[in-house]
């Protein structure tokens, strides 16, 4: 049993790390809040002074803000639908015994370990290139019109790239959940003659509810910060600029105050979504 002295020693040992982590997190946040209330233009430092809520008003009334918010929510919702539905289907398939199961599982999970910038370059140059991409070759082989993805369907292209990256994560979590399904339940369903759809909707899907909720929560937190795929493929246009990219554009214009206000607005919106999902998870865990 730990004594009072050992507990004090343990707290003293971890205190420097906790203090360093606290400073590492708090200092940038405090500086961002401070700059958000100042007129701070890197190209005109003489104008640096207190601006109050002016930067927030400027960012929220910017016509690009609503568009960026719509793009952000569309991107998050679309990727979540694709990865959860696709993840459930892939998990069901991979749970079945077949030859080469280990290699197939490794190949399915591989995209999750590719860096976002690299995956965006791969899709841009190897798959969606209008001159030499794989999709162009397939369209020409089938005598179909060639699709110029990043011009005709820029947001859809980014959704496909991001979904390709996150589908393995959803599959891994859901496959683990399926494999934890009680064997007695499976045998009971088979003895009762349950049809495949009934077995899925009444046994498998309820069992996956917690895993699906965890997938949605974790993916949402990261998808709200999607940036590299947009920067590499469309550079923010046409109509593919989400909130992180809008903050980046504001910062590129040397408006540090406006970019700081935009970053804080994005953080607040992300926290609202996270709180909603945490409450959703809490309800599922209590069920």
UniProtKB/TrEMBL annotation:
Coiled-coil regions listed: none
Q: Where in the cell is it found?
A: Cell membrane
* Primary location: membrane
Which top-rank group of organisms is this from?
Bacteria
InterPro entries noted in UniProt: MetI-like, MetI-like_sf
Q: Which UniProt keywords apply?
A: Cell membrane, Membrane, Transmembrane, Transmembrane helix, Transport
- Membrane association type: Multi-pass membrane protein
Q: List residues traversing the bilayer.
A: 12-37, 64-91, 103-123, 155-178, 199-224, 256-278
Domain ABC transmembrane type-1 per the UniProt entry, residue ranges: 69-277
Q: Which PANTHER family match?
A: BLR7065 PROTEIN, INTEGRAL MEMBRANE SUGAR TRANSPORT PROTEIN
Family, per entry: Belongs to the binding-protein-dependent transport system permease family.
- Name of this protein: Sorbitol/mannitol transport system permease protein
Native source organism of the sequence: Labrys monachus
């Amino acid at each position: 049993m730990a004594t009072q002295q050992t507990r004090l020693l343990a707290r003293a040992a971890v205190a420097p790390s906790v203090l360093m982590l606290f400073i590492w997190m708090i200092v940038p946040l405090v500086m961002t809040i401070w700059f958000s209330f100042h007129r701070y233009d890197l190209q005109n430092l003489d104008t640096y002074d207190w601006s109050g809520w002016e930067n927030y008003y400027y960012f929220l009334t910017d016509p690009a803000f609503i568009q960026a918010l719509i793009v952000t929510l569309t991107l998050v919702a679309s990727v979540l639908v694709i990865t959860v539905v696709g993840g459930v289907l892939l998990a069901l398939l991979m749970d079945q015994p077949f030859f080469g199961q280990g290699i197939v599982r490794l190949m399915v999970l591989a995209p999750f370990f590719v860096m976002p910038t690299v995956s965006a370059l791969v899709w841009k140059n190897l798959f969606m290139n209008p001159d030499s991409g794989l999709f162009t070759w397939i369209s020409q082989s089938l005598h179909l019109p060639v699709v110029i993805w990043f011009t005709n369907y820029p947001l859809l292209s980014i959704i496909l790239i991001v979904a390709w990256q996150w589908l393995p994560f959803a599959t891994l979590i859901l496959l683990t959940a399926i494999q934890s399904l009680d064997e007695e339940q499976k045998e009971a369903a088979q003895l009762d003659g349950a049809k495949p759809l009934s077995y899925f909707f009444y046994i498998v899907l309820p069992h996956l509810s917690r895993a699906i909720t965890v997938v949605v929560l974790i993916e949402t937190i990261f998808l709200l910060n999607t940036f590299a795929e947009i920067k590499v493929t469309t550079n923010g246009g046409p109509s593919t600029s989400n909130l992180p990219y809008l903050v980046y554009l504001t910062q590129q214009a040397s408006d540090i105050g406006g970019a700081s206000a935009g970053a804080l607005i994005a953080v607040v919106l992300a926290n609202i979504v996270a709180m909603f999902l945490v409450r959703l998870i809490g309800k599922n865990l209590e069920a």
